Amino acid sequence: MIVLFLIALFLAWPTGGLSIVAFIVFVVAKGYFKGKSRLHDANVRHAEKAINSGELYPPSWENDDSKIELFIGVVSGGATEKGVAKAFSVNLLNDPTGRKMMFWFAGALERSGASFIEQQMACIEKMVNVWKRSSADARKEMQELHLNTQPTGQAPERTNEQDELMSLLANGDMYGDGVDADEIPGCAGEFGWEATNPVPVKSVLGAREYLDSLRLVDGTKIEYNRIGSTTADGIKHPVDIFMLAHENGEEIGKLYFSPYHKRNSRKKPDFERLNSNSVPDTNVAITSPVEPMVEVQSIEGVKAYISKLSELTQEKVFVEFSNVMAAKHNLMFTSTSIDDYQEKQTKVTDLTDKALWICVSLFGQQAISKFNMGNPTRLNELINQLDEAISQKNLPPQQHGQELVQSLHENLTA
Prior knowledge:
About 55% of the residues lie in helices and about 5% in strands. It is an alpha+beta fold.
């Protein structure tokens, strides 16, 4: 059969050569595309996990008008070809909220290593899934709508059925165990200001709605920026961290959210507790466990870091050690694109060096030099092993760091 096919291609001169090349490429590439399909599925899973954890980043092309136009056209057209009502696909991408959510999904895919074409493919799949999950009445209503002809960028008037579909997209895949309450039952710590008592909201977008409604004691609005997520005792799912600031940019403190509940909390955090526009955070010393900065890759940086360590209380040093190891663990077990790989490796190296300087400040240069004939690689391996074992206990940062220091002391003085 293949022989007959090749003969037919030769007889189809002058395009025979091109057709043969296409046929060969198809046969050879068949296995390649199977592998690409598996990689695509993995990228989608990573992106959905990132968004459910509140990691919202726009794609690199968000300000490229030509790419935006291409993205909207391809995703809308592709979804329509797969049975999605054209009115829904076009209107959703013209709606500022709907477009933002699709861009966040594309951004998460890009950070997982997906190409621009793969981002479009996945967004088509996402829109089809949202469409299929909507009620039959909602789909029928949308199919009967005429295509809205307002210019691109203007949000059309939405129906209740559209709102139902938008809600599905906004909420994503929730865990199904959220509360319908202003505060999560059984939590300890100050509401909102501590990770052990986060503000319950319905989604990542719900957290932003909640923050937009907040006012300081003097009536002014707050600025905010999501800086990462963490885990906390008694809280089943990841807790989002937002840094709050005054309108002039002066930082206020961190507010914690649990974005997996049935509605947004109506309870507000206590801003009257603020003193000198700051919120004390017992879980922060120098290094952020979610967004570490490169600090000790120069002589000046090492001197500055050691100076900062010397100013910390012993309890804060324990917190700093825990944060350094948590940041290192997060980086090492997070997928990274090729473009970001070098930056990630630099941060991991910096955190490894920080752990070494913490040990020097705690135990002294002589004790560190004596351990395994002064081999820093062996010390690094020991720190990693001890930290991994202590991590299984899921301790608060200060206690985690304290146990790590005690375990190291036993090994260094043995």
